[in-house]
Each structure stands twice: as structure tokens, then as C-alpha cells.
Amino acid sequence: MTATAAAPALPVSREHALALLREMILIRRFEERAAELYSAAKIHGFLHLYIGEEAIAAGTIPVLSSDDAIVATYREHGHALARGIPAAAVMAEMYGKANGCSGGRGGSMHLFDAARRFYGGYAIVGGGLPIAVGLALADALQGRQRVTACFFGDGAVAEGAFHESLNLAALWKLPVLFLCENNRYAMGTALERHQSQTDLRHKAESYRIPAEQVDGMDVLAVEAGTRRAVDAVRTGNGPQFIEFLTYRFRAHSMYDPDLYRTKEEIAAWKEHDPITLFAARLRDFGLLDDADLAGIEQSVAGEIAGAVDAAEAGPWEPVTELLRHVSAGQP
Amino acid sequence: MITKTTYREAVRAALRAALLADPRVFLMGEDVGRYGGAYACSHGLLEEFGPERIRDTPLSESTFVGAGIGAALGGLRPIVEVMTVNFSLLALDQVVNNAATLRHMSGGQLNVPLVVRMATGGGRQLAAQHSHTLEGWYAHIPGITVLAPATVADAYGMLPAALQLEDPAFIFEHAMLYPTEGEFDPAQGPADISHARVSRAGKDVTLIAYGGTLAKALESAQQLAADGIEAEVVDLRVLRPLDTETVLASVRKTRHAVVVDEAWRTGSLAAEVSARIMEGAFFDLDAPVARVCSAEVPLPYPKHLEDAAIPQPRTIAAAARELIGAGAIRG
Lengths: 331, 331
Prior knowledge:
Chain A is an alpha/beta fold.
């Protein structure tokens, strides 16, 4: 590569760039493997893939500190992995094994890790937002300088809980970072068919919450936007809102025949694949070569193989323990 | 020192004692602060404890109940007041899908020490939308405790008992009870919330009631006594988990059971109690279990129709007389 004096450098170190790339590739390959395992009847129930949206989890979550909290949705494998929940614990959870991150009780849609302050996947759309408001309220009342990051999709914007939660967080100046992953579809209903105002930032602005729209296919833009918003939340002046423009390349769930959008539309968005784009950019700046990429793929493949092995080897919870975890006093 | 006071004042005294005892406790809900509570249960608490701990909320039931869940996850001991059970329908998603499930879905990593209080019941000519009795719906849900204080002593003692739980508790205060008078001992400590209680001893028939119907059952027992029928009255007190043994012990003695419930008959808590008596004391019965429930109609506004729709001392006594007559014929 011929560097010219005018060429701007990427605002990240090679090491950091490769870490971001690896995180996105890990999420992509993990989910590709999960889809295969679903077809092989190793994973059951609902499985909502994040493929196409990886830049958001990879770009936001590492910006948070380990004291900050995360509330996610049912499409949360990527967030769990980005938070550092071991791939083996996530995969075992999807199998329903006792060594899963929720002891097998939750499955793909309900990943939890209390120690990492990962407060779970919520599978009723919009249901996690009030929880995030409450976590932030607890921090505010106890004088802790922590942020609660709350992920949700464009579909949630139609729910009453969205509006109630934004209003309450703004009214009480709570440290919530609202992160809208706008993938343009509420299950199968396009944004234009479920929102009168499709520029979702304005919803937040109407509650006087500072809001920004960010390209969710560009991991560096995601990271920079998240840094600005997290810094603002930490000043104690209330919530911030980011709308990430993104797209899921796969169907809503494994049950979805994907009849509501055109092949051309999907193909056009795949031109913006966050992994391909970022890798190409790193190559342009001389931060990535074939050997680097092969190394990442190899290390990710090893991690996923280990995760599948752990899930396969994990124990089933005995049926005699069926009634556990309903209330205190039960083992 | 035994104190004679109103149910309303007992609730208020319990709230005040809880706020004094534990800095993690705070109260939030609609009009709990400046207004002093829709039923004046929090009158004066804002002045004493300040707006951080006595929090007026917007009319956003889903979000302030959800925020209570989040705040409980965040280490606080929230008391959420939902003005009435009628409005709690707007928060049912948070109750059923989050409060009751988080311990389980997380494989025991999380728990939700949340107390929710609300007024319930009819009898004040408030018509079809403000007169619901839905405690039985809540009692259907595993993972939560459902309390129905029917006396001044329980109004005072059940709140601190609920606050000691590690899981969500719902306290249903029948709106007709607030002005009623009774006795409690401020030094009594938390009430037992594991057992039903025999409120009146008798040998001929067991009247099983809770909340707003307890006083009616006791009144009907007096009417029956005039006829030489000695009714035993059981106050269920705890609707989930039900204390089946206290009910069965009484029914085994009297051999007749009338279950009184202000909810609609179909699918009611009375149906559950009745089924448990069939399961546990069938061969001790001299007659089929009888139920006195509300008529299957939205509660009407005119007083004569509302009175006819809900259980009354007269209708409870009539059911008991008929039952004993039926038993005598069969016997």
C-alpha cells in the first residue's frame, strides 16, 4: 500500500481493529454453526440469528465497563459473546444443557450472566426497557456511576413500554443508554408499514433525549457513537439514544420463510456486510493481510468447536430438579 | 401496645415503618407523593422521606412495575403501588413475563425482591372498569406470593413479611376495607404469611373467604348462629401458595364447605379451593362443596344490581343453610 500524505489513518490501533474484526467473525461463525445445529435438531425452539448486525454488539459492548449493565432481546447471542460470556456457556444454553449460562432453563432467547451484569434476553418485544430503567434507577438512588445499556429493535418502538420507558428515564434523568437496532423489520412487517415516523431518532427527541443515528454496518462508527453516548450518560444528565441502521441477512427465526422482502433488497444490504467492509478497510490501510484473517478464522473455529464439544458433553438437568428456581427456599 | 385504628392507617404505618427500617426501601406509584395516595395510604410520607424515596410516577403501569423489577435486581427493595387492580392489567406483561420468570430463566442467578400493592374489589358503584377482583389471576402464577390482608393486623403485618421475601409479592387490599377499624400491635413484627387462619371457630360448616369477603362471611356466621348453625370461618390470607391443610382440617371437622369469592365463578380461586377440598377431603364431606361468587356479569353501576352481583352475608348464609339441609337429606 502506498500511503499518501492526505490519507487519513484509521483512528484505531491494529491490535484493536483486529479485536473488533475477530469479535464480529466469532459472532458470525458461531451463529452459522448454531443454524447447522438447529437443522441437526441439536438446538430447538426459536433461534433468532443476528447475522448482518454483528457490528453493533461488537462496537458497543466493549465500550462499556464491567460495572455497567446490559439488557438485551431474544436476538442476543452476539451481545452475550461480546460481553465475554464464554461461547461454550452460550452454546450449552442453546442445547438446554445444565452447563449453559442460564443453567439450560432459558435457551437461545434467555441468556443470563449475573456476574457479567448481563441481565438477559427478553422475548416479549419492549419488555426489557422498563427493567433497564429500574436498574438505572437503582444505580442513581445508590449513587453509583454506572450505565445500563438497553438493546431493542425497531419493532419495540411501536410498543407502549418503549414510550413509557423513554419518558420515565428522561423525566428522572436516569443513566440509560437506549440502543435501537433498526433492522427495518418488526418480524415480517417493514418499518414503513409499522411506523408513521420512520426516522426513529425523533421519537427519542420528543422525550428530550439526545439522539443520534449511526451506520450500524460500520463497526468504527458504532464504537465512536457509543463512546460519545456513554460519556454523555456518565455525566449524570440522563439517558441517550442511538438508532443503529442495520439489516439482518437471515430470516427472523428458523421458522420464517422470509416471503415479505425481495432477494434484491437482501442482496443490496449484503453489499454492506459489516465484516467484509471492515476487513476490506483494514486491508486498504495495511492493517490486515491474508495470514491475519486466516489466523482469526482458525482461532474462531477452534473456539466454536470447543463450545460445541462442551455443549455436547454437558449434562442434562435431572427431571427430579424440575421445580428448581421458582422461588427462594427451593434449591 | 395494642392500637385501634383503620385499615388505611395500618397500611400507612406499615409503609412508614418499612421506610424507617431499611434504606433500600422506597415507594413509587401514581399519586403516592403529593396527593398522598389515591386511598391516602401514603399521606405525609413525601414530607417525611422526600421525593427520592416517595416517587410519583407517570400513568405508566407497565414501566413503573417493570422499573420496580429492575430496581429490585439492582439491589433495592421497591414497594410499587398500583392504584387499583384494574390498572394492573396494563402491567401484567411485566408481572407474568419478567417478575415471575427471571429467577427461573436465569437458572437461579437473579431474584426479584419486589413488593407490589394495589386496591381491589367492587362494592362502591364504580361500574364495570373499576370493580375487578383479579387476585385469582395472580394466584395462578408460579414464582410470586399473593397476599390478601383482610384485617387491620394483616394490613400492618403483611407488608414487612412481604419485604423479607427474596421473590415478588403482591398485596391486594380490598378498597372497602380502608375505612374499617380494627386492632394491631405496632410491635407485632412481620405477619405469618404461610398460613390461613381460623377467624371464627364452629362445628357445622366451614366458610372459606379472603380479603373483602371475610367480614361478610363473619357476618353471615352470626346470622347462622341465630339459627343454631355454628359456622367456622377460615380466612385464606395467602392466596399463593395456598395453605390447603388449614382448609382441609376445618372441612374434615365440619363436613361442609362454602367457598366465598368476589371474583367471577368460572376459573376462580374458589374453583381451586373447591378442587383441593375434593382432592383432600372428599370422603369427609356430607355434601358437595358450595361456592358463593360474583354473578357472571361486568359489575353494574346501580347499587341494587351491584349488591346482587357480589357475595353478601345473606347469600353466604343461604348457601350454608342449603348445604347443611342437603347434607341432612343425604345423611
